[in-house]
Specification:
57% of the residues lie in helices and 20% in strands. With 222 residues, the protein is α+β, with helices and mostly antiparallel strands. The protein has 3 domains: 2-79, no CATH class; 84-146, no CATH class; 173-222, no CATH class. A hairpin with a 3-residue loop joins strand 2 (45-51) and strand 3. It starts with a helix and ends with a helix.
């Protein structure tokens, strides 16, 4: 009996070993394929897929188990839960001191924009976008401060100009006549280069200088 078993094993042993090897490889390959063909999306997360053939897909995968093609596709998971972010930035104060400002925000991504978010900023979008928004807000604050300074300086200049004009008029009555002549020259220059045709008398062109002169002569004769 044992001799027959030995003869049968020696006869079918190589074939049996080959069958066992092929079966083991097949089972192992099936387990590997089954394991890598599925991916899970946890609660509070969403996933998109990247394909080596077609690139980033627009399909959105919710919680649960989904199918993918091994090696050709890979899932990209996003956490869509609301998360707090604290932004810290240095800015200047009115007394020329640097102060630290912190801002706490709550943010979460839009589910329908996850492919675009991944293309633009990747999975760590919140840190990148928050930093950009902080720099933008800092720039807007500095811009507003500079505009305020410019307005104050302009108002002070106009006030000084008004004081100087008032003083010049008070000390020299002919200053107004000189300003009228300058204005008349500027108007005449613009009319000369313009294509429009206009007919004006000398009184209108010189801003009524002739009439004021005639009135002054009449007063002196009287």
């Amino acid at each position: 009996m044992s001799q027959k078993f030995t003869e049968s094993f020696s006869k079918f042993g190589p074939q049996l070993a080959k069958v066992i090897t092929v079966g083991s490889v097949g089972i192992g390959g099936s387990v590997w394929a089954f394991k890598n063909c599925l991916f899970n999306v946890d609660a509070g997360h969403r996933a998109i897929k990247f394909s080596r053939i077609g690139g980033l897909k627009e399909d959105l995968y919710t919680e649960g188990t989904h199918v993918m093609v091994p090696w050709f596709e890979r899932p990209i998971t996003f956490d869509i839960r609301t998360k707090p972010r604290t932004l810290v930035s240095l800015t200047g104060s009115k007394d020329l001191q640097m102060v630290s400002i912190s801002l706490r925000t709550l943010c979460r991504p839009r589910e329908d924009k996850l492919p675009a978010i991944y293309r633009y900023a990747g999975t760590d979008y919140d840190e990148k976008v928050a930093q950009q928004q902080a720099e933008k807000a800092k720039y807007q604050v500095l811009k507003a401060q500079e505009m305020k300074k410019n307005i104050i300086i302009k108002a002070q200049g106009e006030m000084e100009s008004a004081k100087m004009i008032g003083s010049a008029i008070q000390n020299n009555p002919g200053f107004v006549e000189l300003r009228k002549i300058d204005a008349a020259k500027e108007i005449a220059h613009h009319m000369a280069v313009s294509r429009n045709k206009m007919v004006l008398n000398s009184d209108s062109l010189l801003l009524n200088l002739m009439s004021s002169g005639n009135e002054r002569l009449a007063i002196e004769k009287a």
